[in-house]
Every structure is written in C-alpha cells, then in structure tokens.
Amino acid sequence: MTLTVTVLGSSGTFAHAGNACSGYLVRTAETTVWVDAGPGTLGALQEHVALTDLDALVLSHEHPDHWLEVPVLRNGLKYVLHHQGLRVLGTASTRAIAEQLVGSELAPELLWEVVADGSEAQVGDLHVRFSATDHPVETLAMRITGEGRVLGYTADTGVGWSLAELDPDGRGFDLALCEATLDPSEEDEVQHLSGRQAGAMARAAGVRRLVVTHLMAGTAQRRAAEAGAPDAFAGPVEVAEPGRTFEV
Ligand SMILES: [Zn+2]
Ligand SMILES: [Zn+2]
C-alpha cells in the first residue's frame, strides 16, 4: 500500500468556483487523516470517505480559510451521525475560536489535542511533526510520514521559514504541498510565498516532487511555471487540482 494525498480544495484565502479552500485527505491502508478543513472541504471529503471513518483532523492555523468547516462537522457528528471521539489536532487559539463559535464544549464529538511548534503526534500508522511558520498568527506546517514515505505541507508561510526545518536529518520530502499565493510583484509584502519563492524553498529543502497550492483563481498554471523556473525549483511542478490524488 502507499501513502496518498487527495486534494479537497486548494483555493487560497477564499473559495473559487469549483475549488474549495484548503483541505487534503491523507491516507494509508489503515489510516485516514483530514488535513485542514477550509470552507467547501466537508462535502468534498465525503466524496472519498465517511466522516465516521476519519482517524483525525489536523488543522494548520486559525485563519478561516483553513478550518471553518469544524463547527459544521460538529453539527453532523452531534445531531445526525451521533459519533463521538474524533481527534482534532490544532493550535490553542484555533480551539478557543471554535469553542466561541459553537458556544459550548467541542467534546465529546471532537477531542481537541493542542499542538504547537515542535509537537509530534501518531495517528494510526501516520506520524506528524509540526513546525511554526512565518505567518501573522501561530501556523503549523507538517511533515507526515507513513508507508516509508515523507509528505510535506507548508500551510501558510512567508520566506522567514523553510520546509528544511521539518527535515533535520536531511532526508528530504518525497512530495511537498507548498503554498504559492502571491504574484511576483507582491513578494515579501505579506507573509505568503510567490511561486518562485515556493520553488526555491522546496529545492533547498530536498523536495523531490513539488505541488503548488493555496492558489488564487486563474493563477495555477502561472504559479506552477514560476515555481519550476531555473532560478527556483528548476524542474516540473504540479498543481493541487481539486479531486486529484497524488501517490507520495
Ligand atoms: Zn490561507
Ligand atoms: Zn493564513
């Protein structure tokens, strides 16, 4: 069996026609993890897996495009599916906002485990390591390993952080999902990456297969080309198209 990642949505900042905000389904034969729950991903997820078959939900940060399906997920688990005990790994501030939004405890449907920079977690046969990125709020990138393969996910970040921080042993990444939000003219204005910056970071961090994500409408092919340029990744770059499954 293999480690796979299925794109539920890859729109940056807000959902676009036909593409939800950030969300991914990471699976091995025995483990199913939902990574980021941006608006639109709850429905997309159920094209692939039942909510009751999830082993955990892992959230990168509190910005609404990465987690706002959580209160609606809880609706389903609490009032319809009557399913308790889903593990949620996320930051303390995301939990606080979620509790405020639902107006009560998230348990027993959602069992929140606070994670932070340097945290590690085991979910079934997947291991997750977190690293705080360069972003205006506490944001956690992830290195997910399973079936002998290594997946990287930058979450949202500026150039003040690198995937290399999740790879202290220099093993690199078989596949990495890197955000490529910005037009080249916007580089360094906000804590996000342009395609070129994403490509350069991925190359320096030993990424073997680069997939750009967190994209503005209509920019996917351009960002992939910019990321793959000779002064960046210097190789083919793929796009996190919604519905597509990658073998890591
Ligand atoms: Zn975002
Ligand atoms: Zn963000």
Q: What structural class should be given to the helix and strand makeup?
A: alpha/beta
Q: What is the approximate shape?
A: globular
The CATH topology annotation reads as Metallo-beta-lactamase, Chain A
Average pLDDT level: 97
Our estimate of the beta-strand percent is: 25-35%
Specify the CATH homologous superfamily.
Answer: Ribonuclease Z/Hydroxyacylglutathione hydrolase-like
Alpha-carbon distance between the termini? 11 Å
- The radius of gyration over CA amounts to 17 Å
Give the CATH class. Answer: Alpha Beta
pLDDT < 50 stretches: none
| Domains, number | 1
Ligand inventory reads:
zinc ion
Query: Quick one: how many beta strands?
Result: 15
User: What is the helix fraction of residues, given as a range?
Assistant: 10-25%
Supply the number of helical segments.
5
Biggest sheet record: 8 strands, mixed
3D architecture notes:
With 248 residues, the chain is of the alpha/beta class. The chain has a single domain, classed as 4-Layer Sandwich (Metallo-beta-lactamase, Chain A), CATH 3.60.15. The protein has helices spanning 41-45, 70-81, 92-102, 195-204, 220-227; strands spanning 4-11, 20-21, 23-27, 32-37, 56-58, 86-90, 110-114, 120-123, 126-132, 140-146, 149-153, 175-179, 210-213, 237-239, 245-247. Strands 1, 2, 3, 4, 5, 6, 7 and 15 form an 8-stranded mixed sheet that branches. A 7-stranded mixed sheet has the order 8-9-10-11-12-13-14, covered by helices on one side. α4 crosses α5 (220-227). The longest helix is centred in the first third of the chain and has 12 residues, at 70-81. The chain is globular. The mean pLDDT is 97. Bound molecules: zinc ion (2 copies). Residues 12-13, 63, 65-66, 156, 214 line the site of one zinc ion (ZN).
